[in-house]
Amino acid sequence: MFEAKIDATALRECLETVTAIVDEGKLRITDEGLKLRAVDPANVSMISFVLQSDAFDEFHFSCESEEGDNETEIGMDFVKLLGILGIGGKEDIELKLDEHAQKVYIRMGSLAYTHSLLDPASLRKEPKVPELEFPAQVIIETEEFRRAIRAAEKIGDNIVLGVDGEEFFMEAEGEMDKLRLGLTKEQLIHLTPKTVSSLYSLEYISAMSKGMSHAENITLNLGEKYPMQLDFELAEGKAKISYLLAPRIESE
Amino acid sequence: MFEAKIDATALRECLETVTAIVDEGKLRITDEGLKLRAVDPANVSMISFVLQSDAFDEFHFSCESEEGDNETEIGMDFVKLLGILGIGGKEDIELKLDEHAQKVYIRMGSLAYTHSLLDPASLRKEPKVPELEFPAQVIIETEEFRRAIRAAEKIGDNIVLGVDGEEFFMEAEGEMDKLRLGLTKEQLIHLTPKTVSSLYSLEYISAMSKGMSHAENITLNLGEKYPMQLDFELAEGKAKISYLLAPRIESE
Amino acid sequence: MFEAKIDATALRECLETVTAIVDEGKLRITDEGLKLRAVDPANVSMISFVLQSDAFDEFHFSCESEEGDNETEIGMDFVKLLGILGIGGKEDIELKLDEHAQKVYIRMGSLAYTHSLLDPASLRKEPKVPELEFPAQVIIETEEFRRAIRAAEKIGDNIVLGVDGEEFFMEAEGEMDKLRLGLTKEQLIHLTPKTVSSLYSLEYISAMSKGMSHAENITLNLGEKYPMQLDFELAEGKAKISYLLAPRIESE
Q1: Is the ipTM of this complex over 0.90?
Q2: Residue B130 domain-assigned?
């Protein structure tokens, strides 16, 4: 049994972080809230998503599984759901799961939306989160990061993110030009001094950049020719999102 | 002889209701105002439109017809005219018909636009309005109706509109999901309790939904597997528009 | 040596006037400021552009040329540069030329953009400005002019601009309709009474119309079947732009 009630904007913003990586996936419902972990179709990026039960105005869950698991897994089409939520309205959204019918009922004011669950067997397995250690960490205002990404999109397909001593930098290079964002420790919310950098596909970072647009700050975890982990919070800190992105092999 | 002056916004909003159904058509000018009745090219929907002479700041009409008719019929390209009016400006619009030259002169501030009339013989005949009796009537805020239509567009191609006892409902069904707007008598401006419903093409209702966007309320006249008549007013009640839409035959 | 600092909005607006005519070109740097003269690829329109050194917050230039010229010529991709500046931000922009490396360094807050100069030999020669005498001059509010252009775009491909006695007019004719803007001397900022008119390609005037969108007034210099010169200022009068447009030969 799962029944819950949540602010429409909070749910919409959370779904946007998910659809930046995958169109559909498995959502796990537990006592603690909603959880999701998924990789994009090309296996380049991953999202780990938790929307805590205390982000909801109401949250009732009890597991009916015979196996004694303390969670229920449902397959959802996030893009479709976001499309419906996106028509607007600021009223609370009520969610209700009917496991037997394999449906989720969503109520937005006078609109009732019934979403048939996807067969979890038809969906990709939840990925394992690799064990990673990041030597450098940077906390930056989201808008500053997003602006540099928008500019980099005009230049090329890849971007280098790194820390050079006490400076965080982003660098994109085209045939005729080059763009560099450099921010010293003082201009950042936090920086671990280090010397590391990695090359990433701008296509994936651009998608993530849209997904994070409602977060105030983001935390970048970086290494040398290493994956990047990008963390942020929504719903007044009660939604926690981590994007993980594999580095590109530099051609030179 | 026809000469008139009208607020630009009022004329623009009226033209938008017409172009939701037809691109061009015959406009009748009478003492009482401007009138139009037209069906869309596929014969699925019809508009009956009256813009009363008292909606104009000035309205002068005298018929020069030898047949003693008390009206003049002109063929117009409404899409083209709306395109020109749509470039904006809030000043009054002056209209002047030159029947001999078969032109309409339109003045918007310092811009003068001359529109050659279409040959009425090249245009479809004005349709007869079928005699219909509607068992159920619902009055609803336009924005509530339009929001449900926008959501339904995400689901499928058809929509059911009906009254179920004291509830008005709209229902769209896709392969994987279903959307339902349900409003009780208390949530509506008016409702005739009844049990009727019909299926309509969403394509046509979407077009009408754009056409009615400036109206505050709309009146839905409904029946069982029956056409729907959708009435609303613009120009402070001095423009009266009725859309008529044929039902679809349900496939089940 | 060239180093300068300028308000981001002023530079962006100036670049927009240039990209209305050409994508890339030769910019001359002198003591007096930045200068450019270029024709579009089809040789129909020309821009003469001066951004005075006093429009800059800082402007340092000294010529290193051995030939003793008092100017430096650089080849730039204006569209690319405007794309980068267009991502926004209102901070000052710092420009620095490295002639040996053939690069321009542009700093916008924490973003540093390096633009490789184009080989001037690969660019078209700077055109000569033809000697022209214009019998009629009209000064008009930019927005009034642009609105007439937007309306004319709905009608046809060409537009007549002229002065008829004490009236300035713009006229576009389609197959079925005709649009005319007529403004008397009293409705204009200035008019030289005359009787002249010429036909121009709307495509070029539409591009210019975008380029001039931030100017308050424009000055039209007109003649009989003659080129048109369109002058305006930006950056508080410290940027001076002239568009020159060849007339079309009237088909009748």
Answers
A1: no
A2: no
